[in-house]
Amino acid sequence: MTASRTHTLFSFGTLMDERVQTALFGGAVPTSPASLAGYTTRPLKITDPAVIAASGLDVHLILERRLGASVEGSVLHLTDEGLAAADAYEVDDYARRRVVLSSGESAWAYLDARPLRPAERIVVVGDSIAYGRCDPRGGWAGHLAAAHIAANEAERRLFNLAVPGSTLADVGEQTPPLLAARRPDTLLVAAGINDSAVPLTGAAADAGTEADGTAGTAQIDRLTGSLEALAAAALDHNARLVVAGPSWLDENRTRDYEGLRFTRARALALRAFLRAWCEANHIDYLDLWEPLRERTELLVDGLHPTAEGHRALYEHLDAHGR
């Protein structure tokens, strides 16, 4: 029989209340004082009757990023069962993610389920689509920057460090040394279409590829290693990692693009892998497939969005991430 693990959970609200702990865990749980730097709180209206009954409150708190601020709270030491009970208690507005406490200890915390809404300083990394190719206004990231900064010009920033042609391996290698100077609280990785491309000629065309053209074990290992490196880099800066999946492509127009083949099957396999990895590792995943699906008029060359296509991607991100 497998023994239950102990989990550390940072609480800044009702989970510190002994009445709530008794209702959820059967009694008070071991706690210790803790603080979380780089955050503040804002009120959140609660409508779930069970949560209101347990806490006695219809307004709870939710975390928001703020450079120089700090939130005081407690670390709860929970079993597997206790952590599952806490997950069930928190409403859909919250998502459990990793944070680094002021002590340097890593712990779980319940953050805003919309990962870009509480952000203050965002770093975008990725490929030509994240860079904004084919849109003189800077693509979806340019739209996001304008809206994000306009909401609080004095405090908010967005740095687009995307490089055309980049793969996840490139991004995983190049990003870590670029973060310190920008002091990000959110790292938005546009896990682009280059990771699904296959060279048309040469031995590299078959490397890491299964008979049906989807990713093989070797490529999955490389993708996993790159994502783990990015997750570690984000946590080093107490930043939240957000992965944006590939956008829809029209393979009838991209079969021979600069010596590469882009197919819908491989793009969908990449999308499925990224979604599964994010879910397994409690990382935020934003899907960019649907906004351009079957809308080939929004693609310049079957791969890169037009200015209108970038606008559609931004509106989707805005609706689901902010």
Automatic annotation (TrEMBL):
Q: Which residues form the Gamma-glutamylcyclotransferase AIG2-like domain?
A: 9-112
The record, for InterPro entries, names: AIG2-like_dom, Ester_Hydrolysis_Enzymes, GGCT-like, GGCT-like_sf, SGNH_hydro, SGNH_hydro_sf
List each copy of the SGNH hydrolase-type esterase domain by range: 124-312
> What protein am I looking at?
Lysophospholipase L1-like esterase
Task: Tell me the organism.
Answer: Streptomyces spororaveus
